[in-house]
Amino acid sequence: MTDRGEGVEFRLGTAQMAVPLVLGMALATGLLCLGLRWTVDPMTVAELRDCAYAAAVGVVGALVLPRSTGVRLTIEHLVTFSGFGRRERRIRWADVSGIDVRRTFGVASVNISLGTGERLTLPAPMSFLDRRFDGRVGELNRGWETHRQ
Fold it and tell me: What pTM was computed for the model?
């Protein structure tokens, strides 16, 4: 969470991005190794090491890149942004009809309902590896209650 003068911003933390990425790459590499073990040409130790290096480069690359998705709370809008800040959607507080928390596979995320009937899952905050999730949701609710008129 950052306060950049124009509002409060929530982004996913490094661990929130890295842990699923590392686990996914480890699982994919393990499945590839198992799959190739039962073929005519099983994977050698050197090939497995090359796969592990490629996975590690992918993880490091994802960690080095700036966190590109999040939410910004301003006086007039709830702004969701992605794609290195190039894509953003501004939602007027008056257009938000409700905010609730949904759990999927044990991970809580914030959903907003719009007056049009549309529902959006916000990219941040998310409870996975975030001890301050409840406080951030509270701050989001207070912003909506304060500025929705």
Answer: 0.66
Q: What phi and psi, each to the nearest 5 degrees, are found at residue 123?
A: -70, -25
- The whole-angstrom separation of Cα 137 and Cα 124 is 10
Q: What angle do CA 139, 145, 12 make, to 5 degrees?
A: 30
1 vs 132: CA distance, rounded Å: 10
List, in sequence order, every beta strand (DSSP E) within 74-139: 77-82, 87-92, 96-104, 107-114, 119-126
Averaged pLDDT, 9-21: 76
Q: What percent of the chain has pLDDT over 70?
A: 86
Are 25 and 55 contacting, i.e. CB atoms less than 8 angstroms apart? Answer: yes
Alpha-carbon distance of 125 to 123, in angstroms, equals 7
